[in-house]
Amino acid sequence: LTGDDIREGLAAVISVKVSEPQFEGQTKTKLGNTEVKSFVQKVCNEQLTHWFEANPTDAKVVVNKAVSSAQARIAARKARELV
Which domain holds residue 59? Predict the structure, then answer.
């Protein structure tokens, strides 16, 4: 499984307040503060772990979706290689 397999179809909204935000690019659509990224990853990982433990049935659905995405990605790659 890759991160893309797990994130496929996932939509999330995260609100972060930063005293001195640094944005990437001219459109300023992506936050560039690396310390914020590390913090958000840590918090999301902890909270998702708790949620998976508290909701094993739903967690299984998420895992099955990720496995299906991985299988589809692998099948698509094999199909491209045959051409």
Answer: 3-82
Please enumerate, as own/partner, the contacts of 15-20 that have beta carbons within 8 Å and a separation of 24 or more.
16/40
Q: Which residues have C-beta within 8 Å of that of residue 67, sequence separation ≥ 6? A: 1, 5
Residue 30: enclosing H or E segment and its boundaries? Answer: strand 30-31
Mean pLDDT for all residues in the chain: 93
**pLDDT per position as a tens digit, 11-47:** 989 898 999 999 888 888 888 888 998 999 999 999 9
Q: How many structural domains comprise the chain?
A: 1
**Sign of the Cα pseudo-torsion (58, 64, 69, 70, in order):** positive
